[in-house]
């Protein structure tokens, strides 16, 4: 089994308004995840490179996906992986007049087949998200075409899209488009962390049968370390995958989308 997670860490500032990076590390360790998409990662503004520090503390490879440079530091997306990163690039999802946005597109050396992961953080405006999801779907379709037309899904890359999609509406077009491409996936409530009401943080996997379960991580520390809860997914890529068994996950999830 492979464990995926996505978490908006709010720059390391918790729900109590305090900047405590150690809480972020402690929650990441609680997740026991193999691949983690992070949003709102701030590095270098005060001479503290948060991404490098998190990667070192967790013993993982890192990929930076900054979208903003402010005060001399980077701010944006990041990816942590226990698997080697075979390739990486940044996809610009910025919409004129809005905050710059982007996605990390990385290929990970996961057994038995590589995993293509897109980690992102979408915008706040509905029209902005629609444009960004169209761009993501074009990217996904291009990747799928490059994978070829293998009849057996196990012969292709596993494809993952995860991150903070900022979609508040259950029936928003971006969600409908993504569900159509990936097939529906559970969406646990993850925001706000102390009393989660909205499923803003999502994980989709293709082929869909590989996705075993999805749940929000609701530990005491997670509810205060950021304004979002982490969301964790268990993926079964096939019997050839060595390693530990999946950790228990709560079955509580947001109702399935149409």
SSE layout:
Elements: E1 2-8, H1 21-31, E2 35-43, H2 50-58, E3 61-70, E4 73-81, E5 85-92, E6 102-108, E7 115-121, H3 126-146, E8 158-164, H4 173-182, E9 201-206, E10 211-216, H5 222-225, E11 231-235
Parallel strand pairs: 1-2, 7-8
Antiparallel strand pairs: 1-11, 2-4, 3-4, 5-6, 6-7, 8-9, 10-11
Helix pairs in contact: 1-2, 3-4
Please give a structural write-up:
Keywords: Endonuclease, Hydrolase, Nuclease. It comes from Derxia gummosa DSM 723. Residues 5-228 form the Endonuclease/exonuclease/phosphatase domain. GO terms for molecular function: endonuclease activity. With 258 residues, the chain is an alpha+beta fold. It has one domain: 4-Layer Sandwich (Deoxyribonuclease I, Chain A), CATH 3.60.10. Helix content is 21%, strand content 31%. The chain is built from five helices and eleven strands, in the order βαβαβββββαβαββαβ. Strands 3-4-2-1-11-10 form a six-stranded mixed sheet, with helices on one face. Strands 5-6-7-8-9 form a five-stranded mixed sheet, with helices on one face. A hairpin with a 6-residue loop joins strand 6 and strand 7. The longest helix is centred in the middle third of the chain and has 21 residues, at 126-146. Mean pLDDT is 88; it is low at 149-154 and 240-258.
């Amino acid at each position: 089994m492979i464990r995926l997670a996505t978490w908006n860490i709010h720059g390391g500032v918790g729900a109590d308004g305090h900047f405590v990076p150690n809480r972020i590390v402690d929650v990441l360790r609680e997740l026991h995840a193999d691949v983690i998409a992070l949003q709102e990662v701030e590095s270098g503004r005060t001479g503290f490179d948060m991404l490098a520090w998190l990667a070192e503390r967790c013993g993982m490879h890192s990929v930076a996906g900054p979208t903003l440079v402010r005060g001399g530091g980077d701010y944006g997306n990041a990816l942590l992986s226990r698997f080697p990163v075979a390739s990486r690039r940044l996809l610009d999802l910025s919409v004129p007049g809005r905050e710059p946005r982007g996605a990390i597109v990385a290929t990970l050396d996961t057994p038995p087949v590589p995993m293509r992961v897109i980690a992102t953080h979408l915008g706040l405006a509905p029209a902005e998200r629609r444009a960004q999801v169209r761009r993501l779907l074009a990217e996904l379709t291009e990747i799928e075409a490059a994978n070829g037309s293998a009849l057996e899904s196990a012969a292709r890359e596993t494809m993952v899209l995860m991150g903070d999609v900022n979609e508040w509406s259950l029936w928003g077009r971006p969600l409908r488009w993504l569900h159509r491409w990936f097939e529906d996936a559970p969406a646990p409530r993850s925001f706000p962390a102390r009393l989660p009401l909205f499923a803003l943080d999502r994980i989709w996997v293709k082929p869909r049968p590989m996705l075993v379960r999805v749940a929000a991580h609701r530990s005491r520390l997670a509810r205060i370390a950021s304004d979002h809860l982490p969301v964790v997914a268990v993926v079964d890529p096939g019997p050839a995958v060595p390693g530990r068994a999946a950790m228990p996950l709560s079955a509580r999830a947001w109702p399935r989308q149409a």
